[in-house]
Amino acid sequence: MERREEKPTVLIVEDDRALRSGLRWTLADHFHILEAETRQEALSSLQSERVDVIICDLHLPPATDSITEGLQIVEAAKQHRPSIPTVVITGSSDKRTALEAVRYGAYGFFEKPFDEDEVLHIVRQAARVRQLEAENLKLRSTLSGRRGFGRLIGSSPALEGVIRQARAVATTDATVLICGESGTGKELLACAIHEESARAGGPFVAVNCAALPETLIESELFGHERGAFTGATHAKKGRFELADGGTLFLDEVGELTPAVQVKLLRVLQERSFERLGGTRTINVDIRLIAASNRDLEQEVEKGNFRQDLFYRLNVVPLTLPPLRERREDIPVLASFFANKAAHKHGLQPPELSPELMAALQAYDWPGNVREMENLMERLVVLTRGARLGVEFLPEKMRSGDHKPAPPEEESESTLEQAVQALKRRMILKALEIEKGNRGAAAKRLGISRSYLHRLINELNIAESN
């Protein structure tokens, strides 16, 4: 079969043959066209073909006196992933039903008799929305499947420097000591080093030393034999044995007791140990990565941590920067965690308002990336609508003045921001010239009235403007 040109596909659902033919001629140079006369034919095409945009008359047989058939097509289009934009056709005296369809989920509408330029414009815009949503889904899928150093999100110089060092050490078996405040992503970095190493096919075993009771930590790390202590009714492997052939990550290693520090030092020197209550020496092949939110050198000076163990752990030190020292990564992190939370709870990816972004970037993040992830999930769960604002932020984050810059001073540091700012200025100017008449403003801008309505909502242009 000959492969057709890669154009977006438009499905025209219209029982009026002449109108359907006119639409086909208007769009055929730019789109691949499919046609249907009824809801059943349309749904069949949606199942068998890839459709990017639907143009649909609301009054379809057999129920031409109502809009039920048309609304069912709008509903079916919404169920696709990503949803298919539906542009509805309406008569000049039937705008109320078209607006109802838009509220029901339709992308927009145009009137009969149609203007060719208006139809071409709105369909192009709808196809572009579909393309962007498909790209967003692909990106989210890619992000959710991140491995190795792709797990660490951001491009700030502070983070990139750490990743460069980590890449260099990942291909070796050298012991790594990761330092950084709580919530900076120390376990994530340790896992990335493991996944980029020759041990990636082996286990990655993580232990939070601070979370284990002092009486159990030796048993958890090195295992125990049956009868080693009250309640030890059977032998148990420790984390060192479980990590054999892979990587053992000891988080908060500064919390280890002196007795466990001595045993850990021996394992690092000889790669062997005995289970608690046992006499048989067990040999292991592991790569050790340790982490601490304390300054272990200071702990050594205070006598709280063995100096010889510190030197054994500190072969390759890596220090993760706190979030307040990599503020340029905050927007991409916030968007990533918002999308992740939305996916987790079965919601659409949200938009972050300028007020929210300003508040996020002004905050010092004592809990670092972990605090941000938890906050973004809270905002996604509590917010009703597709735009996250500041209303559910903690009071400590709302106390500052985080109002966005006025439109004429909006950031235009990226192409997308510049385009958004230009659209806003043009719309405001057209509305000013036409004294607020949206129909006249849409005509002056060369766009449909429904598209102007959509832009006003998307760009958050207030009525007072």
UniProtKB/TrEMBL annotation:
<keyword id="KW-0804">Transcription</keyword>
<dbReference type="InterPro" id="IPR002197">
    <property type="entry name" value="HTH_Fis"/>
</dbReference>
<protein>
    <submittedName>
        <fullName>Response regulator with CheY-like receiver, AAA-type ATPase, and DNA-binding domains</fullName>
    </submittedName>
</protein>
<dbReference type="InterPro" id="IPR025662">
    <property type="entry name" value="Sigma_54_int_dom_ATP-bd_1"/>
</dbReference>
<dbReference type="InterPro" id="IPR001789">
    <property type="entry name" value="Sig_transdc_resp-reg_receiver"/>
</dbReference>
<dbReference type="Pfam" id="PF00158">
    <property type="entry name" value="Sigma54_activat"/>
</dbReference>
<dbReference type="GO" id="GO:0000160">
    <property type="term" value="P:phosphorelay signal transduction system"/>
</dbReference>
<dbReference type="InterPro" id="IPR009057">
    <property type="entry name" value="Homeodomain-like_sf"/>
</dbReference>
<keyword id="KW-0547">Nucleotide-binding</keyword>
<dbReference type="GO" id="GO:0043565">
    <property type="term" value="F:sequence-specific DNA binding"/>
</dbReference>
<keyword id="KW-0010">Activator</keyword>
<feature type="domain" description="Response regulatory">
    <location>
        <begin position="9"/>
        <end position="127"/>
    </location>
</feature>
<dbReference type="InterPro" id="IPR058031">
    <property type="entry name" value="AAA_lid_NorR"/>
</dbReference>
<keyword id="KW-0238">DNA-binding</keyword>
<keyword id="KW-0805">Transcription regulation</keyword>
<dbReference type="Pfam" id="PF00072">
    <property type="entry name" value="Response_reg"/>
</dbReference>
<dbReference type="InterPro" id="IPR002078">
    <property type="entry name" value="Sigma_54_int"/>
</dbReference>
<feature type="modified residue" description="4-aspartylphosphate">
    <location>
        <position position="57"/>
    </location>
</feature>
<feature type="domain" description="Sigma-54 factor interaction">
    <location>
        <begin position="152"/>
        <end position="381"/>
    </location>
</feature>
<dbReference type="Pfam" id="PF02954">
    <property type="entry name" value="HTH_8"/>
</dbReference>
<keyword id="KW-0067">ATP-binding</keyword>
<keyword id="KW-0597">Phosphoprotein</keyword>
<dbReference type="GO" id="GO:0005524">
    <property type="term" value="F:ATP binding"/>
</dbReference>
<dbReference type="InterPro" id="IPR011006">
    <property type="entry name" value="CheY-like_superfamily"/>
</dbReference>
<dbReference type="InterPro" id="IPR027417">
    <property type="entry name" value="P-loop_NTPase"/>
</dbReference>
<dbReference type="Pfam" id="PF25601">
    <property type="entry name" value="AAA_lid_14"/>
</dbReference>
<dbReference type="InterPro" id="IPR003593">
    <property type="entry name" value="AAA+_ATPase"/>
</dbReference>
<dbReference type="GO" id="GO:0006355">
    <property type="term" value="P:regulation of DNA-templated transcription"/>
</dbReference>
<dbReference type="InterPro" id="IPR025943">
    <property type="entry name" value="Sigma_54_int_dom_ATP-bd_2"/>
</dbReference>
